[in-house]
Amino acid sequence: MIEIVNLSKVFDAGGKNEFVALNDINLTIAQNECIVLKGVSGSGKSTLLSILGAMSKPSNGAILVEKQNIVKLPDNKVSDFRLHTIGFIFQSYNLIDDLSVVENLMAPLACLSLSKEERIQRITRAKELANILNKDDTLAKDLSGGEKQRCAIARALINNPSIIIADEPTANLDKNNSLYLIETLKKLKALGKTIIIATHDAIFEETNLVDRLIKIEYGRITQ
Amino acid sequence: MNSHFYRFAALCLYTHKSKHLAPFILFFILVFLVCSILFISSSLKSTSLTIVENQPQILVENYRGGAKSTVDDFYFEALKDIKGIRGIIPRVSGKYYFEQSKTYFTIIGVDFFAPNFNTTINTLTKQYAKQSDKNSVFIGSGTQSVLDKFAYKDSLTLFSHGGESLHVKIIPLDDKDFSLLSHSVILCNMDLAKELLGMEKFEYSDFFVDVPNETEVPNIVAQIRTLFPNSKITTKEESIALAFNLYDYKSGLFLALFLTAITSFMILLYQKTIFSFAHEKREIGILRALGWKISDIIQFKLIQNLFIALSAFILALLCSYIFVFKTNAPLLKNIFLGSDALSIQTHFIPSFAMMDIVILLLLSVVPFMASVLLPSWKLSTIDPTEVMK
To answer: What is the largest CA-CA distance in chain B?
Structure first.
């Protein structure tokens, strides 16, 4: 379970360009729940996702994941949390362009002491889940948008994380690829993953993937 | 860290090889230049040291009106009464201008059957005593290469100071081990040398004083100075220091230039990593977002850049060794050897201090690593989302 308690994020606090991105957010997300954060650009949903994904620190508040406040963790523990618990799917994929699909999948495994068999097993499983099986040696920069997204999903799943976070996952995809992504997310939900998606794409509302829709406006939860 | 981590670091290094080429080449050039200078300087110092160490303790030169003048028997007579002197060894040497190549040869007059001023010369005279006669000259490899250009194979016509032509037989010296001493040398008997240099029979260029007890040297120097207040007296210790200072000064200038160049290079590298290289920033941001710790990023960059720095260093070291000791450092040697070297080939004897190489390694690799690792560390301490933007 994830509990977000009085979470705030202020950029350039006290400065000329002070901007309140998140204002006193309180939210509880159950295990295996799929929630969608909706809101216009600049509403704060991506900021909330990056804090949930332990990729930036809030100005105030706490995030309890299985009762552990990840905000207070030292950097090494936060990195471990990102490595083992979070699978982050970025809007712009954030693949290393000059590496092949398999090499990109190797990146999160590089810091782990795993046997060769275990590595191969994890890569194969992630590729199957994300359905990117025949592109092993293709460089990331040569993939289509849909393929890049699938590669990014495979990389996010490589360490079998319990929480999947996706930031505008359909923003750069056509409808077919968007539907395909939703099917993949459904598979992940069926595997017991908690899924948090930030989007303003209405396509998610038309599916039975989403358990709860949360609207964010001006850094506050309004619905 | 597991082997997979090293493989991944190597893979990324290979994939981004074009990106790493510029620092590699710059680093290679800098180390190559400094290594070449160190090798030349070290070789010349070592050869100079060998020459000076093989000479007696005190050199006495006569100066008249600021210009070097000759000495004569009067000097030797005056020194007879000083206790502690084992012997006085006069030297006949000077420059001979070879018009055809516009080069100066060094004429050294020797006695083939008695001790000379330098034990290296003695080795040569012993070796060639049987071939010596009044009309033979022994030439070093540099002199030989110049004469070869003008097809002087077996004989040569030299001119005395008075303009009289002297036909001499040429005998090349096998002088690999005495290169600096003999490379531009014409070794001949005293009488011929004096004729070529325009000296009278009783005149010499200067002389050495052989003192068996080294602790007596300052005392004897003081006594010689009292006898000949206008003469220049140089001890072996001072000669060694002079030889060292000469090459240290030249290599020092280059090292100062190197430090300036390497500092500029490091600043460039630092700025490249932290400000301008979006690719580098993005890669660090992605790896951090995937769960890499700060220490993982540092180790990742350390492996890659240590490989770049060490491979460039080793390659530069090998290339400079070949450049100096196999090809005789074309262009660069002129700076060290001056005009004589302009047309005379010098053979550098391989000699270098391991400590110099270690210091160079530390002075180049450590700042290189720091200029890459510091910005990488700085970037990895920033939130991944900020770095990836």
So the answer is: 91
